[in-house]
Amino acid sequence: MTPLQMAKLHAAAFTTQRPWSETEFATLIESPHVFIITDPYCFALGRAVADEVELLTLATNPNQQRHGHAQRCLKRFHQAARARQASTALLEVASDNQAACRLYENNHYSIIAERPNYYHKPNGQRIAALIMSRPL
To answer: What pTM does this model have?
Structure first.
């Protein structure tokens, strides 16, 4: 998946916050620590450093949500992280993103911290960011 394809998919999936640009994706994937897991309708972008991996973003085509794409990408993300010698996975998610929170909780992530008022919605509302972690 190219940076342009990732940016388009990210924009379709993230409609209540600023999506990442093609340039941002291109810059990220230049790092030797960053890796991408893709399927035709979903991608996960991660960064592995030392024994930790961070799920930077996970995006699914809105027309293909609830078909298991994110679940499969996340499983492959964990496998790739273990192959990179990571023992812990971390991520950040908006507290009002119920579908994502359920996905992560169902995959053994637990909340370890909260950033109050971190995300800014277009309507001015502020939403907490949840920091979640799981052992690999």
So the answer is: 0.93
